[in-house]
Amino acid sequence: MPWQVNIFLLGTFVIFVTTVVAGESSSDDSRFSTGVGKEWKHDCADFNNTTWREFQQQRTKLQVQYLLLTRRNVDCAAMFSQDSLTNPQQPSLFDFSLPTKIIVHGYRALGSKPSWVKELAQALLRAEDVNVVVVDWIYGASFAYNLVVENYKEVAVQISILINHLQNHGCKLESFHFIGVSLGAHVSGFVGTLFEGKIGRITGLDPAGPMFRGADKFDRLDPSDAQFVEAIHTDSDYFGISIPVGHVDFFLNGGMDQAGCARSRFASILVYFPVYGYVICDHMRALHAYVSALNGSCPLTGIPCSSYEHFLAGRCLGCKGVLNGTCPTIGLSENSGITVSPIPEEQKVFLLTTSAPPYCAHHILLDLEVWPLDKSAEVEVTLKSKSLGTENRLRLSTDTTAYRRVLAHPVALCEINSIQLRNTGARFYRQAEIHVLSVCISEFPPIRQEKSLCVENLYVRRGTPWSHDFVLLCGSF
Ligand SMILES: *[C@@H]1O[C@H](CO)[C@@H](O)[C@H](O)[C@H]1NC(C)=O
Ligand SMILES: *[C@@H]1O[C@H](CO)[C@@H](O)[C@H](O)[C@H]1NC(C)=O
Ligand SMILES: *[C@@H]1O[C@H](CO)[C@@H](O)[C@H](O)[C@H]1NC(C)=O
Ligand SMILES: *[C@@H]1O[C@H](CO)[C@@H](O)[C@H](O)[C@H]1NC(C)=O
Question: In which domain, by residue range, is 412 found?
C-alpha cells in the first residue's frame, strides 16, 4: 500500500519540517482578532496550536474547543462551550432561533491553525444570518495521520455532546449544517451517524481518501448521515475520496487534477513536501470553490453523468433524466437545488472549472466532422473572447470521422468571437491536411433557446492555422 509508506514518511518527515519551519508554522497573519467587534466586547478567541514536542507529551488529550462567529462578531471569534450556554452572567452571542453552521477542519500536518477558516466563516455570514461554530481539534488533528484517523470518532462524540446541549435549548437537529473539510467531512459524517441521520445537512469538501477508501459506510461520510449530504471532490486520486459519499457528489474537472494546480504525479511525499502548498492545491480547491459559490459571483452547476469520460465525450448534456430538469448547484440552496423526491443518492455530477476564482466555466460542446483521414492527426482548438483564449487538444484517428468534446470556457457562447484550428501533428506520420466537413460549438445546459455556431467545409494544413470570426451574438438569442 503506497499510502501506508507515505504516511510513515510523512510522520518522520514532519519532525524535520517542524524543526525547520517551527517559527513560520505558528506565525499567523490571519488571526481572528484583526478587528475588535464593535457591538460586542470580549477578547477575541483563536485556535490553539501545537508543536511536535507538545504533541509527543500529550498525545492522548484531544482538547476540542469551539469558536463562535455571528453577524455581531464577524471579525472577533468568541470562545463557545456548553458551560457558556447555562451561565446567566454571560449572555451568549449564540442565537437559538437561527440555524447553525458547524465548520470542522481536517488533518493538520504541522499543528498550525487552518488559514481558510475565517474566509469560510465570513462568506457563510454574508450569505445567511446564522451562528457559525468552528470546531478546533488541532490537538487531535496534528502530525501523524494514522493517529489522527484514530481520533476522529472521539471528536465527533464530543461535538455531539455540544449539539445535545443546544437541542435542550430549543435548536432543532435539522437546523444544523456541518461543513467538513477533508477528514472533517468524516468527523461530520460520524456526528450524523450518532444522530441517526436527523441532522439537516452535511457538506464534505474533498472528504479525505487515505484510510477511508475501503471504509464501511458507518466509518465514513455517506448519504444516511444527514437529511441532505453533498460532497465536492477535487483530489480523489490523492488526498480525497474517489467514491460518491453524498446524495449529490460534485466532481470538479473529473475530481482529480485541478486547473491551475501543478500536477502531483510523482508520488513521493519527500519530493514535494517542501512545497506543501502545491501538494494540497487540488485538495483545497473544493474549499475555495465552495467559498466562491457562497460569494455568489457565478453558479457552479453540475451535470449528472455516469463517468467523467462520458461527460467529456458530450454524452451528458443536461439534467432532464434523474433530476427532472434542475441541475444541482454548489452553495446553500436547499438540497443544492435538487427538486426531485426522494432525493437520489450517490448521484455523481460533473463540471469543468477555470483555474482561478470565481472558477465558473461555461460548458461548450464541440462537434467536429472530418473527411476520412489517411493518417492520424492532432488538432488544437482555440476559442477566443476578447482577451481570453482557451486551448484544447484533440486527437483524430483514421477510423472515426465524428468527434464530440466538452470544453471549458470562461464566458458564454455568445461572447466567443473566434475559433481557431491548428493541425499540430508531426510532420512525417500525421495527416498533412485535414478536410473538416463541419465544426460546431454550442453551449449546454442551454439557458435559453441557444443555437450552435457552425462553420462548414474547410481545410486545415500543417503550419497554417485556420480561424474564423463570429459576429458577437450576446443579446440576440
Ligand atoms: C487553548 O487556547 C485557549 C485560549 O484560546 C486556552 O484557554 C486553552 O487553555 C488552550 N488549550 C491548551 C491545551 O493549551
Ligand atoms: C500559537 O503560537 C503562537 C506562536 O508560538 C503564539 O504566540 C500563540 O499564542 C499561540 N496561540 C495559542 C492559542 O496558543
Ligand atoms: C469571497 O469574497 C471575499 C470578500 O469579498 C473575498 O475576500 C474573497 O477573496 C472571496 N473568495 C472567493 C474564493 O471568491
Ligand atoms: C418534474 O418537473 C415537472 C415540471 O417542471 C413537474 O410537473 C413534475 O411534477 C416533476 N416530476 C417529479 C417526479 O418531480
Answer: 362-469
